[in-house]
Amino acid sequence: MAIETLDCIDLDQPEPEGFRSFISSWLCVTENCTVVVDPGPLSTIPLLVSELGRRGVSRLDYILLTHIHIDHAGGTGALLKEFPEALVICHPDGVRHLIAPEKLWQGSRQVLGKLAEVYGEIVPVPAESILFSEDISEGEIRAFLTPGHAQHHCCYLVGDLLFGGEVAGVRCDLPGDAIFMRPATPPRFILEVALDSLDRMIALGPKRMVFAHHGLVEMAVKHLEIAREQLLVWVRCIAGSAASGTGEGEEELVARLEQADPYYRNVRLLPEDIRARERYFLGNSLKGMAEYVAALPEEGRRALLGE
Question: Are 127 and 250 within one domain?
Answer without folding.
Answer: no
